[in-house]
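Hi, can you check this record?
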Amino acid sequence: MAKSLDFSSRFSLSPEGILREIQINLLECKVCFEKFSAQQKGRRPQNLSCGHVLCLECITALSHPLLRKLECPFCRQLCSVDSTSHCQVLSDLQELLLWQSPTSSAPHRPKGGLGLATGLRSAALHLYTAFGGWGSLINPTGIAVLGSSGTIVVVHDGEKRVAVFGPQGNKLHSFGQRGQASGDICYAVDVAVTPCGYLVVTDAGDKAVKVFTSRGNHVLTVKDCFQLPWGVDTDSSGHILVSDVQAGTLTCINVDYPHGVTQEHQTAISDLQHPKAVACCWVTGNTAVMEHLTNDTHAPGKHQHTRLRVFTKDFHLLYQTDSFSLTLQSTTWLNMSGVAFDRDGDVLVIDSTQGMIWSLGKLQSDPVPTPLVGDHLIRPGGLVSLNNMLVILDSGDHTVKIYTSKSESGSMK
């Protein structure tokens, strides 16, 4: 299936919570987010040859009408429509749950615009809404939010590499045609937004950083100074910070956006090990970089060894910790893969392997990881904090998921 339930590494759930996890993670199609149903032919759960389960309607929509083959949206394996089979165990489980609780209803997912109440609480957050899915987004890799408007920008592997969504999840427009011409994007990895609303995209295929207006007009391309640009963010002054995973550097670029010219670019940090994710806090000016270490002496088994380094505004090392050190203070191995700051300057990290988001606080002393999100995520790949919400890019099912505190969700319709 698209996601396995591993409750031992998550929060302690009540029986009602376990039922809700089953209904969300097992009994609905992770492409269209509709509940499976044995009574409706199009909603019947079907096994693909790779082991993942989709509803019959989505299999039909994703498959080639003549070749009768489709690429699994989760593992990319080529599967034949004729080799699919009805997933009887899910139908039996669904009937069992309905029989046990005939008056129960499916978990409610409220819809509507994003509320912009202040203050991200250091407590467990809950899924507010989700949008995207295979076709709308294909292997998304980076996410950013345009100011307080709630407009969400995602880079992915579609024909047009940049997709822009409204606060309610409606697609506004897309740009960045696949290619190497001016304004095209070969392989988008990450995206950031400047304080004045320009979009900055790292193009690993073209070994460049490309700047666009919010409407998708090409402003500037910066290249010939990168080996493999990866993560990107901007500070409160609009300076662009780019990690180079191959060169092991963090580059700071000063751009004259109205005139579309580079004023200055310099290597801010030069001793990084395979840096990828980058985040800059507009409150403190601190910059966080996630390194993927090759000398993996601590990590057991298949665990990756990553190191989080936080620098001051002047790029002096302020704090560092790694996945092994954080594991000593928690009950499970933290596979840190991404980083962000919330509006108060607290450090948030992504665990893409377990599908969780953790808060490390202000990092003033040895941090104790606090879980913020631990349900409905498959493989989170990007994270943006927007006031009392977390906007998370889930590359596992090609969606954007928005989480908020339970007390606020009722006022966000």
Remarks:
- Residues 48 and 84 are 5 Å apart (CA to CA).
- The radius of gyration is 22 Å.
- The first helix runs from residue 15 to 25.
